[in-house]
Task: inverse folding
């Protein structure tokens, strides 16, 4: 017979309302003097959805990014979204690896 193991507070974290998240951030800033980054707004949600869909579907994407003030476009497959380093690991058609920071991404669209 399987035994139920309670995971504690972990199961409630995804269900926090925006008001509760704001209260917790305020608490950590004022009481503990910790600056808590807003993890929900690091990457444009529309771009994030396209990237996540491409990971599961394995589809080819047209990526638009900027580096040093220059906009560039390329086609690539998404291998990994790294939320700790705020980067996305992309693999181009010639198997060359490209790492793009979230703040450099301008757009991502699926190629049919």
Result:
């Amino acid at each position: 017979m399987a035994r139920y193991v309670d995971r504690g507070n972990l199961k409630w974290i995804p269900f926090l309302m925006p008001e509760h998240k704001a209260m917790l951030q305020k608490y950590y800033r004022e009481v503990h003097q910790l600056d808590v980054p807003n993890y929900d707004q690091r990457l444009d949600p529309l771009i994030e959805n396209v990237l996540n869909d491409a990971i599961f579907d394995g589809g080819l994407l047209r990526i638009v990014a900027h580096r040093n003030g220059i906009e560039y476009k390329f086609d690539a497959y998404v291998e990994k979204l790294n939320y700790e380093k705020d980067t996305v690991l992309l693999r181009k058609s010639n198997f060359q690896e490209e790492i793009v920071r979230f703040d450099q991404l301008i757009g991502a669209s699926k190629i049919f």
